[in-house]
Amino acid sequence: MEKIKLSFLAGLFSFFTIGVLSALTYKTDYGVFLIASFGSTMVILYGYPDSPFAQPKNIFFGHLLTSFVGVIFVSFIQLPLFIILPLAVGFGVGLMILFNVPHPPAGGNPIIVILGSVSFDYLLNPIMVGSIIIIVFGIILNRFILKKKYPKNNLFA
Q1: Euclidean distance between CA atoms 121 and 111, whole angstroms
Q2: Quick one: pLDDT band at residue 12, thresholds 50, 70, 90?
Q3: What whole-number distance in Å separates Cα of residue 82 and Cα of residue 20?
Q4: pLDDT (tens digit per residue) in 49-101
Q5: Structural contact between residues 92 and 84, judged by C-beta atoms closer than 8 angstroms
Q6: What span, in angstroms and rounded, lies between the C-alpha atoms of 144 and 148?
Q7: 3-state helix, strand, coil in the chain (%, to 5)
Q8: CA distance 39 to 93
Q9: What is the pTM of this model?
């Protein structure tokens, strides 16, 4: 029965979180709040909140770091797309591991950033603002509704 409850709440909060980000994107003039990898973040955050990958620092800095790598590559590295994409993903994954902020969904961010040819503004919105919104909903579900110790440590420890 507990698995059914967790499954239902994970689906519901995924719907709600992506719904809020979608509404902000398509019903306001504030900009884009969605990135495809946020959908994968929902699986880890709401389905497996005890995982180190689901912790706020990993979600926030994993998305930020890999998106930053993507922006650097798209802005400054003049190589063919079939070379720049794997290089950026490799750098992003390596840096997440080096800085101890691995978040598997963020591994795809350099691809999204490069294919979208986005600028540094993308780092603020959707990456930073969207990640903060996701983390807030994760805390609400895991700490206040499911009564779990979430985050495992201090918010960004």
Answers
A1: 17
A2: very high
A3: 34
A4: 999 999 999 999 999 999 999 999 999 999 999 999 999 999 999 999 999 99
A5: no
A6: 8
A7: 75, 0, 25
A8: 18
A9: 0.95
